[in-house]
Design goal:
Helix content: under 10%
Number of strands: 8
Radius of gyration: 14 Å
Strand content: 35-45%
CATH architecture: Sandwich
Largest sheet: 4 strands, antiparallel
CATH class: Mainly Beta
Distance between the termini: 6 Å
Number of domains: 1
Order of helices and strands: EEEHEEEEHE
CATH superfamily: mth639 domain like
Shape: globular
Amino acid sequence: MEIEEEFIAWGHPNIKALHRSTLEITKDPYVTPRGDCIIAVRATKAVRDLSEDFKSMARRKEAEITLIIEVGNFKEVVKGYGHPDLEFLDERSMVVRKSDYICPRTLMIRANKAAIDLDRRLISLLRNPNTIARIRIIVSV
């Protein structure tokens, strides 16, 4: 069984995507030069906006979560896991983590990629504020 969520986000000139353990998508309209985990801004969803069915399934021990980011002809797939302690409370962002750390912004843990691991051609496109990223998140058990 699986549940899918879709939304869009935009690029920003300050996107670096150099963080080695996380990646973040935010509803905020900007990124400071220090925000090296952020890959897209002005997102139409944060973790709090995900459906209750999605959140419930993502909290199952066996939940696998897939994040698909499409920009132009480029597509990145990031895989990770859910956890019973996921809170999905943050109203501004969602964070993918390679670690087991969980906070109100966490979408998934033990991910196979962080910001630094994403295709640099995709990141280059995301430095343009007119670039739209189409994002899908799939939870399956």
